[in-house]
Amino acid sequence: MGNCLQRRGKLVESDPAPYTVARPQQPPWQQQQQYQQPPLQQQQQYQQPQHVHKIPATPPRQPQQPPTVSTVKSPPPRFMASPKPAEPRTVAMGGVLGKPLVDIRQTYTIGRELGRGQFGVTHLCTKKATGELFACKSIAKRKLANKDDIQDVRREIQIMTHLKGQPNIVEMKEAFEDRHDVHLVMELCAGGELFDRIIAKGHYSERAAAAVFRTIIQVVHTCHSMGVMHRDLKPENFLLLSKEENAPLKATDFGLSVFIEKGKVYRDIVGSAYYVAPEVLRRNYGPEADVWSAGVILYILLSGVPPFWAESERGIFDNILKGHIDFESPPWPSISDGAKDVVKRMLKQDPKDRLMAQQVLNHPWVKEDGEAPDRPIDNAVLTRMKQFRAMNKLKKVALKVIAESLSEEEIVGLKEMFASMDTDNSGTITLEELKIGLARQGTRISDTEVKQLMEAADVDGNGTIDYIEFITATLNMNRVEREDHVYAAFQYFDKDNSGYITREELEEALIKYGMGDEETIKDIIAEVDTDNDGRINYDEFGAMMRKGNPEGKRRDLDIGF
């Protein structure tokens, strides 16, 4: 998900902007000791041999001949260099880790790319000696622009070493530095992100959500009890160790984490927009900010949307500071009081009033075999499809235009879901495949409802859902409301760039989808043309596109639900 607040550079106190980004400060006691090369071994002092060939005291002098060479060698200097095999060589030292430079490829085979971030790339790697698979996070040294950046890398390694052995935290195996990168070899989490697993299951009950959340808040408690504040808790930073059903969940990415100093007030703004605590925005926070972030994750686990949303980061921050949380819109009326109580007490504006991690673990709804009911939470995919069914036909085509323009990165989760339902690899989903796919994901609906969903998604009416129709039907509402997407869709219909969609232009566009009949066009214009001039302008088109979104300002977060 985007909206990352991480920035590099020092805080400029004179900056009037309320959300200036600062660098995490490095406590003096965390300084990495510089590697010191051990002194060369001193060679033992030469001792004169006891038996020496005697030379005559008065040899005849023969100026014409070279002097006779003695069979006895002069003593070597006290610090003569060692024999060649043991001769010390100059070792290139790394400027980040302060250790000798090492070629990681001597120990590991670097494989395919797993992910990419601001400072580096993560690859699959294989240990040559054992064949074990790991993840190698390579941080480009050229992107470490100053001492603060270097200290951040050192601190991340220190913290991961400190947390080594904790069951729900990704373990760092070793670190290398070569001339171009710093390499962190870590435990491989091959099961993917937490929310990808939720997509695959299709739904969660409150009890299942409580079990997942229990692991998340346990990680927070572990970090705090060991003196670490994570500062970037979000769903993407929780990975499953394997694809097994009961694979453990692991926390990762400690790049923004710091050691907690007693009595210290932290003032740098770091984290990701949806999850950042209000006191972080006010530049006066401590470990309680992690509890807030975990509370936001729980809110999303229960509802599929974040508690604070806006079109921009600034708007998100404003809503966080206002602190209004919606517990009235669906699915909250059907969520248990215990679940709502946990969320409310974790998202208190004043960090002093907020539950601590240990208190959250002891809450009756969170505890194992606690009061969390085994009642299914609304299926997010089903909800989107039902929402989509209520849209008019023009909006369906407009959404299809938007769907065709989205990048692979934007729809990767939906692409995987489509592939799982398309069991015969035909490139389309039939009514039977949709029914089986929804059932496999835990969605219990009648045959009539499945047919209604098929009818809603099947834009061209051929009895199957193709890839673009599926992506269109499950588009997140925040995608719909992006101005650039809406305008691009409007231009698709407005062929002559007149600023209006005429009846003829509408017919030309809709006929491609088998919807260009006179009755359909008449219905569309009657619904969308609010000023009754017989054509659709951009304002009318935009209003139509935004119509039907949940609660206007509350839209689905693009997490692949």
Apparent shape: globular
- Assign the CATH class of the largest domain: Mainly Alpha
- Rounded to an integer in angstroms, the radius of gyration calculated over CA atoms is 33 Å
Estimated helix fraction = 25-40%
Describe the largest sheet.
5 strands, antiparallel
| Count of alpha/pi helices | 19
Specify the CATH homologous superfamily of the largest domain.
Transferase(Phosphotransferase) domain 1
Strand content: 5-15%
**Measured distance between first and last alpha carbons:** 12 Å
Low-confidence stretches: 6-56, 68-73, 381-392, 476-481, 548-561
Mean pLDDT: 76
Strand order of the largest sheet: 1-2-3-5-4
What does this protein structure show overall?
With 561 residues, the chain is α+β, with helices and mostly antiparallel strands. It folds into 3 domains: 95-187, Phosphorylase Kinase, domain 1; 192-361, Transferase(Phosphotransferase) domain 1 (Transferase(Phosphotransferase), domain 1), CATH 1.10.510; 380-546, Orthogonal Bundle (Recoverin, domain 1), CATH 1.10.238.10. The protein has 19 helices and 14 strands. The protein has helices at 147-162, 194-201, 206-225, 278-281, 288-303, 313-322, 337-346, 357-361, 380-389, 393-405, 412-421, 431-440, 447-457, 467-473, 477-480, 483-493, 503-510, 518-528, 538-546; strands at residues 108-116, 120-127, 133-140, 172-177, 181-187, 192-193, 228-229, 238-240, 249-251, 258-259, 428-429, 465-466, 500-501, 536-537. The strands form 5 sheets. A 5-stranded antiparallel sheet has the order 1-2-3-5-4, with helices on one face. It has a 3-stranded antiparallel sheet with strand order 6-8-9. A two-stranded antiparallel sheet has the order 7-10. Strand 4 and strand 5 form a beta hairpin. Helix 3 packs antiparallel against helix 5 (288-303) and helix 10 (393-405) crosses helix 14. The longest helix is centred in the middle third of the chain and has 20 residues, at 206-225. The protein is globular. The relative contact order is 0.09. The model is unreliable at 6-56, 68-73, 381-392, 476-481 and 548-561 (pLDDT under 50).
